[in-house]
Records
---
Amino acid sequence: MPALVRPLLTFMLAFMLAFATALPAVAAKPASQTATEDGVPLVIYNRSIAVFRGTFLGIGPQARAARATAVIESALSTGGQHRVEIKEHPEGRLIIMGDMLAFVITPGDIDPLSNETLATTAEKAAANLRQVIGETREARDLDAILKGVAWSALDTTILVALLWAIARVRGWLGRTLLNATERKVASIRIGGAQVIDGEYLVPVLQRLVVVSSWILVAALIYEWLSLVLSRFPYTRPWGERLNSYFIGVAENIAESILTAIPDLGVAILIFMIARFVIGFLNRFLVRLARGAQPPDWLGPDTMPTTRRLFNIAIWLFAVAMAYPYLPGAETEAFKGLSVLLGLMVSLGASSVVGQAASGLILTYTRTLHVGEFVRIGDHEGTVTRMGAFTTTIRTGLGEELSIPNSIITGTVTKNYSRAVQGNGFIVDTTVTIGYDTPWRQVEAMLIEAARRTPGILETPHPQVFQTGLSDFYPEYRLVAQAIPAQPRPRAEVMSQLHANIQDVFNEYGVQIMSPHYLGDPAQAKVVKREDWHLPPAPPPAGGA
């Protein structure tokens, strides 16, 4: 900062000395009158005294302004008090400067857009002329010039002190903001992952602090310039115009802020009420779920989704209610943003809403749960994630499938885990053996194969069902419960079970083949009574 202060201070002092030494030259230059759409202004030493819009005794505004300039500057060059008076005249108001007629204010010179009268317009012009006379005397007073330089030097000192303070505060704020942001950002996590990367956020905040400080520096220098210009008579109009412009901008900003505060307060109140309602509703849902008789739709698996739905609905309602009160809601930018969001929703609403509705159906019907082994269409595996739009399953081969929820709700889903006792899943397989093989033997061999398979529980006991009696063979279905909950062990269990079935059938000389005939056999394919309990089938009770 000192490297910046020294050249800045040098420049400011040179600027003030230049103004002080250039004042006589400025005073010697005649003021130029430029015609505008509103008339011809009478400007003496940078200060506007009056505006000529009409004619007087056939003389146009341009000539009137030129004559008044010559008379006033001639009188000011001689020195003296130059008392200014206003006298009435049939054609208007005479502005007398000493013993000379400076100019005339006619009814045509009155601003049609103002509420002024001829008298008020003349009085304003006379007051401006008196100010020019006073500033002319001040410009010739060396003590007044030195006083202006002294005040300007004080203004410059105060400015430099403020710039130094801004630099120190900027450095302190940058360090404090850096440390606070790093701590805050590190604590914001979702699912164990940091939401915001501090390496990118901190530089942005630092640049924001720097830009804000430079904006403040520019505003201070602007105000210093207007103040310094106001210290000297011939530059005072410039300073007044700069100051009035700055004050006008500040007033507009302040007025905009003050105007927006009531509506912004209403919007904030709406969001605060929404947050209060969400907190109350979440606590109520928790108490309701923990009650003696919780509703069917409110369980441990549906609680997160239910809370999320209520929260989204309340926030959307709050945004809709607060939107008219947001600053700039009626601007074209806000309207364009609303149209863009509406277009995006309309283009993707059909599929998105359908998938979201299917996700809600799966959640509240409890068709699936994470960890269950299911079969959806031609795909089977363990449910690993249930989202709002898709459900992810992992097959026994290690493949991960993302299935749209609309497909799940539109097809038959087979759940192998829902009916099991404890953690695990159901395994089942089907074999077809000819009628000439005793059914008791087939069932015993299937049970033996299940017993030899690791992972299949002995309790509940595996069961064999005869699910059909076809023309040439009965159909046997083995159903058992397995322990493993991991996806790949189930595939291994099924593979080992099929291998054991082949081994057991081979040990007892039973061929796994479904017989088909082109014609009736010469002898009936029946099992003799003495062969009903061939090994490994247990003998009948009582030896019968």
---
Amino acid sequence: MLSQQLLEEVRTWIADDPDQITAQQLTHYIETGNTEALTRCFSGFLQFGTAGLRGPLGPGPSCMNRAVVSRTAAGLAIFMKRRGLRSIVIGRDARHGSEDFARDTAEIMAGAGFEVNFLPRPLPTPVLAFAVRQLNLDVGVMVTASHNPATDNGYKVYLGGVIDGVPYEGSQIISPIDQEIFADILSVSSLKNIPRGSQWNILDEKIIRSYVHRTAATVTSPRDIKVVYSAMHGVGTETLRSVFHAAGFAEPILVSAQAEPDPDFPTTPFPNPEEPGAINLALETARSFDADIVIANDPDADRCAVAIKDGNWRMLRGDEVGAILGEYIARHNTQGVFANSIVSSSLLAKIAAHYKIVFAETLTGFKYLSKIPDLTFGYEEALGYCIDSKSVNDKDGISAALKIVDIAAELKSRGSSLGEFLAEISAQYGYFYTSQISLRVNHLSELTRTMENLRRNFPQEIAGYQVVRFADLAQPHDGLPATDGIRFWLGEAIRIIIRPSGTEPKIKCYIEIIKHGDSAHEDALATLSQIREPLTQLFVNS
């Protein structure tokens, strides 16, 4: 039974909705008495946090739509005026709704009197981050849901310069700024009186050429190598091809079925290279062309996946790519700071110590890594890498792709390979095996309940291994601020971190197993086999 209170809330929202399509959807729900749909669409305003907005497309305040995005833009405008920020650049990917959401944002920002810049077409997120810094702008907005399913969209916010003593310099927002903006969003009671403008600057190709040339300059000695590339139905193809050409590398072989933007993601329902089967088409293409290496970006091209021919073709774990980049960069540049996120492998710390490079560990997410001054190399295990923070102060799947291909080409010229380079790293530091268990949930409230139960009822042993250390990361720990997660060790060589995903309705369990000796790989797999099911049951039953 539809309550009078909910009915009035829905009707008020319909009257204020700038989009006839979503307004008609809600009207249809009322006329058909679809209480379930209305309750789902009106379960609170879509949460705005450090990742901005991200959620399913649909009508009402709990979904991604023009009304929600317009209120978000209006709230962001309030924040900007209060903080004395005057300029913004807006970018978008090619997802359903992205063009409309970007235009709504531009209109509201123009109506508020700001200098509004618009990227000329759907482009990778790193180009947006680059533009914020290159053009010395105050704010950047990227309309994208990154690697989420086709039914989702999102809205990332970047800041330029230094705010509240935090060196944003073209990176994503962190707390408490996100909560300040969210409060401003919630203060927007109606869109009727929000002025809209039509005057903004559509940036020309110069900004894209600047990004391409700066990225291409990160390598100096292009060599022969055959690369297969997948854009995962996203917006990476054009920019990556331009970068490779400018750097002097041969044209990558495209995975044709995934090369052009397609908001329906027809070949992979979850367009994240880490998802099972997502890069199968790329591997098939690599076998057909006898390629040397496979590169895949996620749809907004800020993440980079790598697959190599190591006996059979296999995708490298994010931590393996991080180790390759870290070791290679350390051999050529010991200045600045190396850093990775808390859930990433501890191997990078070992590499940094070996080369006497300053190392830092941060909370999960590039929004934290990018705040480290003088960052020479930073990465997170979820396929995010930063090799040139002065250019893109965020993860950049295009520059990472170029650098890893450059390393692979150099190794090939010496009769070696990325697989052999990894073996060399393991011989030097030990074998650091990482794996992950993810559990998708139906509602975000399940994540909170699971974490609370784990904290209250944590076991003393798992799969015969004693829990020797336990840290509730909800309290500041090891120099890190509080975050929602737990970290514990089984013996001295198995580290486990459990936390909710920041971008998807998942609970994630990160496993690191450290082994030494000739049988290290086999020993690590055996240990993983022992602990995987008990760990899975641990948070399934919580």
---
Amino acid sequence: MGEYNMKLIFLGATHEVTGSCTYLEADGKKILIDCGMEQGPDTYENEELPVPASDIDMVLLTHAHIDHSGKLPLLYQRGFRGQIFATRATTDLCDIMLRDSAHIQMFEAEWKNRKGKRAGREEVIPLYNMDDALGAIECFVSCEYHEILQISDQIKIRFVDAGHLLGSSSIEVWITEDGQETKIVFSGDIGNTHQPIIKDPEYLKDADYVVMESTYGDRSHGIKPDYIKELTQIIQRTFDRGGNVVIPSFAVGRTQEMLYFLRQIKEEKRIVGHDGFEVYVDSPLAVEATSIFMRHMFSDFDEDAAALIQKGINPISFPGLKISVTSEDSKNINFDEKPKVIISASGMCEAGRIKHHLKHNLWRPECTVLFVGYQAVGTLGRAIVEGAKEVKLFGEEIEIHAEIAVLTGISGHADNEGLIRWISAFEKKPKCVFVIHGEDLVTESFAERLRREKGLNAYAPFSGTIFDLVSGEFIREAEPVKIDKTKNMPASTAKANSVFARLVAAGQRLLTVIRHNEHGADKDLAKFTSQIESLCDKWDR
């Protein structure tokens, strides 16, 4: 056996659909594949990183969505200073999305603290701040699709188009150990076919091990709907009632798809009696994201979108498109009584300006709230879609009288048949397929389907499961640990823990830096030692 261990540790998005994070150790390197934030309520406890953040050498990032990238600033805060490899478009999108995430963390902490101060509650500390986000962004290394990169002596990687989001990837990883090569494929989020703007997912042919998502592992999108027709009908009947169409939409990806459809609707004059209707994009993030989409249009857009560009047509812009950047712009939208389309983030209604638009429109029977993306269990969006009669927004109970509509079939994720097509493309059966990134029962049912229909060795790991890539055996099969929702940590304790955690992370980083200086000059090491001892003398109470 070689000098180094080769193992996978499954940490996040195990029997859950957000918070993707997998740890890979090989060639003496400690690598994360994705470092995502959990969104919506969690079911199971996730294990912490098996090593200090400062010991992580690199991150391989499949795409920019926050459930895959959102904890990178926290990783940086805790001492990570390695490289984050991602496609060029993913790098550009993370530049805005991680800053936006930090802004949300800081804003919500500030808002809670303003309310909490009046109630005598302890101060809330944001998960991370803007400096952490900017630090993480500096760690990015932009990569091209299909380029083989040697990231260490014995490890090569390649990004291929996953067709899920601009810049999204499946990642191929080749590891050489004792002259023998092992190949792992991390699927990332596998895209739906025939989406507007972006290309279809690429299929891979070989791998020893596959780590595969299963978001829609139990569902079919059905026959592809006529999105333009459905959207036209929804807008027409809403405008005829004198109402607004409010679309909670992910700022990156789904918003640009909606603009693509709306441009066609307007160009073909499909809406009768409401000529020149206005479409508001009320999300600074969506505005920036749209600009990035245009920056990558020649390299990353599909044939249909590219054909429009060749004709001099911007596929995601049109007359009557209004961009709302400032909070004042946002507030003014609801003072305008003309029927309009309002696209606002977030897509699951959990944060951002969409909550204000829901407050102003949900109670109005003439309006429509149109959902155009996945709504995770426990989110406000899911509650509305499932028929809630009222919801609480900004401390106020809002009765729901608006029409609630869903644009069926529109999804950035492959459905169960799309997932089967993707895994079926492997010409030789992988030794094992690890099924992650799906709701609790979905991961199990999809793994069972892979075993039954495809004869694959498929397994849905829980957080903390460790797999030895050399022996091909589990070192540890973790048991699920459900989150105890009855235990609410006092804010004072949470604050103390947060501050102390940063201190511990700084100490761990110091140890990492010490190890990096092992072969330094004696004079430098002596100086470094004196500085540490002086610091210890000052703070050892």
